[in-house]
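To close the section, here is one more complete example, presented without commentary so you can practise reading it yourself. The ligand is pyridoxal-5'-phosphate.
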Amino acid sequence: MPFLDLRKQYAPLKAAILAEIEQVADSQNLVLGPKTEAFEKAIAAYCDVPHAIGMSSGTDAELALLMALDIGPGDAVVTTPYTFFATAGCIARVGARPVFADIEPGTFNISPDALAATLRKTPRVKAIIPVHLFGQCAAMDEILQLGKEFGVPVLEDAAQALGARHSLGAAGCIGDSGWFSFYPTKNLGAFGDAGMTVCRDDALARKIRALRNHGMEQRYHHQWIGGNFRIDAIQAAILHVKLPLLDEWSTGRRERADFYRKAIERAGLSEAVTLPREPAWPSESGCRHIYNQFVIRVSRRDALRAHLQANGIGTEIYYPIPLHLQECFRDLGHREGDFPEAERAARESLALPIFPELAEEQQRYVVETIASFFR
Ligand SMILES: Cc1ncc(COP(=O)(O)O)c(C=O)c1O
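Output:
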């Protein structure tokens, strides 16, 4: 059983997607253009946010935003050490210093208490970047409060969380600005790389639009130093075909998460397996985890993973090395023990197969195979 099987999603959409690709090919309008504008409008409407700007990737969406906010050398940006590399990589690429605050063990997201303590002791903080990891919103109410208290913008890394909701709004659109990734493994996946930055502020949106095109609004007049962060028309067109199905897919993922929870409990595995925690805030508040990943925690993780692999079940580890211990960040001067919760998550977390087309008997087999490991 593969960890993710994208062919099952593609099969029923094949004709519609190929028709869109053909239209783009016939038009030869290949970069940005009307397909991109239509998709940007659709995302803005879906998220109820005034500005959605198509970018070449989630990474470039973040990079352009940090550039637009003039974050650079001498500045600090506070984020989680337990995320995909890009979150902190972009901070370093603009010349700023990534400063980490540890996570909450239950949700894997940045801990508001740790964030508050970090903000208190860190000079020149220019932004806070919470990550809605695995498709679940971070504690945005407390994080926004801290942003206000310390006078810094909250920028949401919603790369894994398009369609997730918090009581305060749609993931990516709660703080000052945010971004999504459409990498193929995301809930809304392109046929290659693509991303989107979203924001409310007109001037910021205008600058990001210019920055994605080498900082020019008028052809060959460069007001800012930007980059080539443009989205391809083919990606925008394909994503636009898929977007209307996103909520249905998210529901399918939530149902599969629920199935795992119940089956793991029924199998008597509650002691051995720690399930991902849904938010501490009440569910009637409109919060929605969209399970880009279903991540359990176990103490003998690598042995369990090998056992599942030997029985034909693909799994993944997100993420084996927390960012403060990455070789490229050794200049930050961290050592093991600095962020114990992130380090423990890196040792214990295991992502099980989850996608809307995953069959019940496949899920049952996953849980039975986990049970056979602990017997
Ligand atoms: C949390 C997080 N941030 C940023 C990114 C970067 O997105 P992309 O791969 O589209 O550049 C990803 C993608 O995996 C991600 O998971």
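Once you have examined the tokens, check your reading against these statements. The pocket of pyridoxal-5'-phosphate is lined by residues 57-59, 83-84, 86-87, 131, 157, 159-160, 181, 183, 193, 195 (CB under 6 Å). DSSP finds 13 helices and eleven strands in the chain.
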